[in-house]
Amino acid sequence: MATVTIQHVTKSFGDNVVLREFNETFQEGEFVTLLGPSGCGKTTMLRIIAGFERPTTGELYIGDQLVSGGKTFIPPEKRNIGMVFQSYAVWPHMNVFDNVAYPLTIKKTPKNTIREQVERVLDIVHLSQYAQRLPNQLSGGQQQRVALARALVAAPELLLLDEPLSNLDAKLRESMRFEIKEIQKKTGITVVYVTHDQAEAMAMSDRIFVINRGVVQQSGTPDEIYNHPANQFVADFLGKVDFFKGEVRDGRIYLEGMGGQSIAYDGPRTGRVDVAIRPENIIFSAEGELKGVLETQYYLGDVDDCRVRVGDSLMRVITNGYEHRFLHEGQEIRLAIRESMVFEDDGLLEDILKIRT
Amino acid sequence: MKRSTDPRRNILKREPAKLVTRIGLAVIFLLGALMAYMGIRGQNEFSASGFSSERAYQAIYALSGQVSDAWKNSVQPDLNALTEQERALLDSTMADLLRDAWENQNAGAGEEAARLAAEGGERKGEITGKLLYTTYLVNGPKVSTSDRKELLGAKDGKALRLQLLQCMIDESLPLPKEAASLAEGLTGKERQAMLLQAFFVSGGSAGSDLTDNVNSLKKSVRGKEHQLTAFRMIARSEVSWGWQLLVSNSSTAVLLGIILMLDMVLLTLLMMAEKTWIVDFKWIMILLIVDFLLLFQLFPSVYMLIRAFFPEGTFSLSTMQRLYTYSMNLEALKNTLIAAFATMILGTAIAFPLAWLVGRTDLYGKKFFRSLFILTYMVPPYVGAMAWLRLMNPNVGTINQWLRVIFRLSDAPGPLNAYTLPGMIWVLTTFYYPYAFITISRAMEKMDPSLEEASRISGASPVKTLLTVTLPMMTPSLIAGALLVFISAASCYGIPSIIGIPGNVNTVTTRIVEYVGQGQTGMNDATGLAVFLMVVALLILFVSDVLLAKRQYITVSGKSVRPAIVELRSWRIPMTILVSLFAVIVVVLPFVTILTTSFKVDIGKSVFDASNFTTTNWTSVFARAETIGCLKNSLIFAAVSATVGLVIACVMSYLLQRTRVRGRSIPNFLITLGSGTPSVVIALGLIMTMRGNFGINIYNTAYILIAAYLVKYLMMGMRTVVSAMSQIHVSLEECSQVSGASWLTTMRRITGPLIFPSIAAGWFLIFIPSFYELSMTTLLYSSTTKTIGLQLYEYWTLTSQPMSCAMAFGILLIVVFLNFILNRLTRGEFSI
Ligand SMILES: Nc1ncnc2c1ncn2[C@@H]1O[C@H](COP(=O)(O)OP(=O)(O)O)[C@@H](O)[C@H]1O
Ligand SMILES: [Mg+2]
Questions:
Q1: pLDDT tens per residue across span A232-289
Q2: Is the Cβ atom of A39 under 6 angstroms away from ligand 1?
Q3: How far is A86 from chain B (nearest CA, A)?
Q4: CA–CA separation, B460 vs B454, rounded Å?
Q5: Same domain, A37 and A170
Q6: Contact between A100 and A121 (Cβ < 8 Å)
Q7: B271 inside domain
């Protein structure tokens, strides 16, 4: 299985710079996810790896081999890569068997080997009994699996998936996540997975690259990314988060618009900061530092999604659904912050919020 | 429960509307039925009472001496059975006939005439008169002016004057002025009768001073006097004209009645399906459009089919058998099939790689080439044919001259010859490959590029991908494009008429036009051939619209489709050169040829020879009042067609895109059918049904041309507007309506501006082909409705090639200019 080394890759279409200075190495057998909002350049990166686009500058290696860069360019068909497209791209004029057998047919593999291999992968994706069907007789999920089987059949060293689950319904999406992960574990193949769905990324990846406007914001395990985001964008993009402006003074952060209330802080930052707090990291507690009034609650069964007015600000608190029975609107309440993320106030937050609204 | 929401109340409220509508529908239906009944009765009454036309016709035929004795004997009983009144009529009619016979030096008829004159009875004066004039007629041009004056002044009464007049307005005598002044001297019924006859004799194109009167006369045709005149004309084998006028009033009643009945049935069915009984504006619109299409499109085609298989009212394949065993027709059939097939193969073979290179590779100048190839689409076919004749004329063709120099050939004609079947195929190909090019390009643009990328990543090279994925996926569009080329080539008239006729390469279309030129008898034969074209066209329409449409693989992915561009690399320059070469040969060379030829004195020499350059071709062509008149006609007819067509297109697209009205697909289907019918077939159908024999007489008028253009080109305009309408989401309109705007305001402020570019495009898409139309115009024009295309054709075949080239280039300039306006109006969104 192959590593992928991306060195100083930049890509622009005309004046539009889509990727800036991409500099990463994907390890053998690693499940890597490129995560970011739509239009951030994920697909472009994937297409550069596949060889459908040439990087404007920089080099790309698959294994030890330089595949794009300088004068060198190895076309997609010579890169030994499997790829699953967002639209599945299952050929409508071939039946399932022929679709899956295509990469082997191209390689002039002997007939019976083809049969064996195709049957093997169709078995992996649970499509054995559909071999003779035409794609238009299959459901979206089944077509998806045909595409997966086709990408796997030639035993590539690298598998690229571009939002493969975004056209499926929610239930199917969850089970397919699991299946793809299982297949990756079984084959040990290196996977580069593109998605804008953070839950998908969290569930499957060994390592996530969070991208915004063509720049990698952070790379790390799901845990690192979620709990220790490198900046406000990453914090905002994964999970739910509320931002507050504040100032560090005397080991405390004084939050703006909360009537001078503050929370404890023992980190290194000083001066003006952005504080990001995840609603599930706030708990109702008599010893809580912040005082507020419970304004509304949305009871969802498993959780209770509350809004608490603290000073002039609203804080979102997601608490265990069980607590619902002890709470009522208008109640005075104290909040304890279990964990918060504190960033330097560098103006990035305003940028993000501007886009979000 | 609140009273206002009681469902029963609502039903009660609607009940009166329902009742009124139903009664209204029934009344109109009955009215229609009554009209039809009266009409039919009128026709029967006419033939039963006054005169048995059929018998009279036979008798006259028999007496004319032009038929065998056996036949004559067989009608003798009929003759004997004639009533007194019929006999008298027959005598005078016979005199006419005898005159004709005499004219034709038919001795037998002469004797018959003499006998008739001798025993003429009470009509003796009239008959003698006729015979007298015959003398005058035969010697017409030789009779001196003074003699003529004397004759005119002769005192023996009206009969003489009448008959003289008749002679004078005969088409063989150039005396329309005198005839007109003579007509002044007559009053009342005689005058009417003579004018009417003038109208008959001239085939409807009597001098304008006469025509005006004649039009009002047609209304009174059921008067005895006019019946008489009409029968005379029948006797002179102007059967269709006479017959048409005789029955025209009652036919109109029948037609109107039937249309009313049909409309009411349709309306009732639609309303039942929609479960509403409120007569809406849109119903009326649908009905009007359907009526138009039924009348001018479906009915003529169906009538032609019937006539082809029931030539004399009973089923008979004899016409067909005769037609399709006649060697010239067989040859034409063979030529048509070979030419269309070869053009299809060649055209598609050119169009597919071209579409791929221009659409999916990094060829240099892609956009330019694309516009250039589509440009050919708006050039009239006959202009292309003219250019290629100039280039490949066996003697003086430019390419031949070059080839002879390059390959040091002798000065013998050749090596290329446009006046052959291969020559015609080549010209057809250069003209019709854009049809396939456009169809294929469109499909290629729509194809999800990841289908090809999936193949590349699976290890297939670009070429392998092209062959195993792109090509098979494109097959349905490829076939559709190919079939379009086939039927366009098979039903083309402009190119075969210019290349084929002089080269003696007949095709079905040129044969049809020739048959039509032969008059009444030719018409049946033309129909027989037209049916062949029609069947082929319908078959193709069925295959590409029904069968292929179902197999369309083209999946339009939700995301924006950015076609994957194949890098040609080392092939990039050679391919660009190849495509440029093709463009030069197929597009540039013909245009340049037309331009240079238009400045030549001697077409055999180069335009750069000192003494060979002249601008007189241009000045003399465009100084002629006739050219300007034709140009004006073309512009007016095209503008009217485009405007009417666009109104229909807008209504149709509203119906198709914004309503769920059931039955909205009926007119849509008919419009598609119309555009798929070969031009020649449309025109022929109109000739056969629109000359008054079914109650509508627009023969020889501008209306028949406009109807033909509409039937053929409506689809082009409609498709554009419909697709624009489908792009505007209905919520935009609803949003405006919610904001309080009325339907009209919404249309004006929201929908209108949004689809304006497409409306403009649709208008031009009907205007441009109508402007330079030739195939249908050839069959439908009259002396007052000549168009520029026709004029150009006449110049080419009869007058001077350089002059016609000047005119052709003028037409091209106009078309390019219109295209430029279109581009401007639509801010570059549309051009053809
Ligand atoms: N072939 C192209 N030409 C021009 N712009 C492109 C092209 N492909 C992508 N882009 C632009 O690059 C940006 C990133 O696109 P993409 O990589 O598809 O984003 P995503 O992260 O949603 O997959 C977008 O703004 C897109 O418009
Ligand atoms: Mg993408």
A1: 999 999 888 989 989 998 888 998 888 888 888 888 888 899 999 999 999 888 888 8
A2: yes
A3: 9
A4: 9
A5: yes
A6: yes
A7: yes
